[in-house]
Amino acid sequence: MKTDTIFYTLLQNLPSVLFELLEQPPALALHYEFSSVEIKELARRIDGLFLPKPEYSKDPIYFVEIQYQRDDDLYWRLITEAFLYLNQYRPQQSWQAVVIWAKRSIDPGIPLAYQNSLAAGQIRVVYLDELTDQSSSIGFGIIRLVVATENEAIQEAKNLMKQIQKADAANRRHLLELVERMLIYKFSSYTRQELEAMFGLTEWRQTRFYQEVKEEVQQETELATKLKTVPRLLNEGLSVEQIARVLELDIEIVRQTIEEQGKKES
Asked: How far is CA 178 from the centre of its chain?
């Protein structure tokens, strides 16, 4: 999972994080719906959009962009998307563009054409590697986990798990799922058993994410078992179409398996 995708997942599930980053009251998240929208002119979506709920119509719209690698066109693209959105949907609110960089060194700098917008506070820039906030919130803890080195992340994750254990039962499973997503990304070379042992993840077997991964693993195992039988069925005289029908596989997958087997034998 890409890091920016993880971060959008975090904003979707814990929108208060955005307002913590902007040094505003986290409770402002209750005023908003986080969503993505289609821009017809560009045939693409804005992934990070905070739209005020109807009862908070005086609050600004936030366009959020997250970047973990250098992108010289980001500011041009983001502002273009913002104005196209405004033209297409004609909202009655003011707006701000928020750019979250993993670190300052990958920020190419705001173009001169948008310097006035920066001075007016319409563009806000956040560098995750420079965060000094010592907030004990779980949202900020997850941010620190994402940007931490592996050694730092281990301790950060353990601290997060302690905090989550204190949450009420309804939120605990939801928060646990968020953290396990981060851990699987951060420690991709570790097995799930190793992660369970390292962080005491005894409850994650109950989460939806764990069940989804478990199902994926089972499907992959089932597919691998079927593919192993392809050469044997071919030797028995079955055609590609017959093998695909018997094993309930796509014909192209069967053909590819046979081709790969032929290359190994040649």
From this structure: 10
CA angle 187, 150, 138 (to 5 degrees): 85
164 is written with which tokens? 């989550």
Q: What angle do CA 200, 129, 28 make, to 5 degrees?
A: 80
Who contacts 241 (Cβ-Cβ below 8 Å, separation ≥6)? 251
Question: Can you name the residues that pair with 85 across neighbouring β-strands?
Answer: none
Q: Determine which helix (DSSP H) or strand (DSSP E) holds 261, and give its type and residue range.
A: helix 251-265
The beta strand positions in the chain, using DSSP E, are 32-39, 44-52, 61-67, 95-101, 123-127
Residues in the chain: 266
213 or 137: which carries more pLDDT confidence? Answer: 137
Q: What is the pLDDT of residues 11-55, one digit of tens each?
A: 888 899 999 999 899 999 999 999 888 777 655 678 899 999 999
At 152-164, the pLDDT tens digits run 888 888 888 888 8
| pLDDT tens readout for residues 80-90 | 999 999 999 99
User: Which token pair is 144?
Assistant: 């620190």
pLDDT over 90 (residue 261): no
Q: What separation in angstroms does the CA of 10 have from each of 58, 130, 233?
A: 25, 19, 47
Tokens of residue 138, six digits = 């779980």
Instruction: State the pTM of this model.
Output: 0.68
Q: What amino acid occupies position 35?
A: S
Structural domains of the chain ordered from first start: 3-205 (no CATH), 208-265 (1.10.10)
